[in-house]
Write a structure and sequence with these properties.
The longest helix has 17 residues. Strands 3-2-1-4-5 form a 5-stranded parallel sheet, sandwiched between helices. The termini are far apart. 39% of the residues lie in helices and 21% in strands. It is of the alpha/beta class and 151 residues long.
Length: 151
């Protein structure tokens, strides 16, 4: 069974995240969306809200589950018997950052990282941009799945 962990803070989930997950469904038997908990970070949305947004977005997809975790993603992969980490790439800066993490993960474990390029129409979207639009009263609803629009 091909199981992938898709880690992130998802503060909030965006249409870019959503697209990567939907496009990864034919590749994996199971995708675990893992919301990382970092006590040092200040989030706009509560952990419960972020988890709810994702669960609602994928409520009709049995291959997707949502969990929260602390610590190294490779440790989570071993705990859940996942062989892959799924990551989306928007631009060359993402690639350089994610490549370094993937190389480190391979040095520390047998976990492979699988990269999917974001779709052209979502490649400009990031959670930080969504948060900035929300903070400034803009129309963020064109950047997020339906489940986030009700917040």
């Amino acid at each position: 069974m091909r199981k992938a962990i898709f880690p992130g803070s998802f503060d909030p989930i965006t249409l870019g995240h959503y697209d990567i997950i939907k496009r990864a469904l034919p590749v994996f038997d199971e995708i675990v969306i893992a919301i990382g908990i970092n006590a040092e970070k200040k989030y706009m949305f509560s952990l419960e809200d972020r988890k709810k947004f994702i669960e609602e977005s994928f409520k009709n997809e049995p291959k997707v589950s949502v969990i929260t975790y602390e610590g190294l993603t490779i440790d989570l992969c071993h705990k859940l018997n996942a062989q892959f980490i799924l990551r989306g790439l928007r631009n060359p800066a993402d690639f350089e950052f994610e490549k370094a993490i993937a190389h480190t993960n391979r040095q520390l474990s047998d976990i492979e990282t699988v990269f999917l390029l974001t779709a052209i129409d979502t490649s400009h979207i990031s959670s930080s941009i969504v948060r900035d639009v929300i903070r400034n009263g803009g129309d963020y609803t064109i950047l997020v799945p339906e489940s986030v629009k009700t917040k």
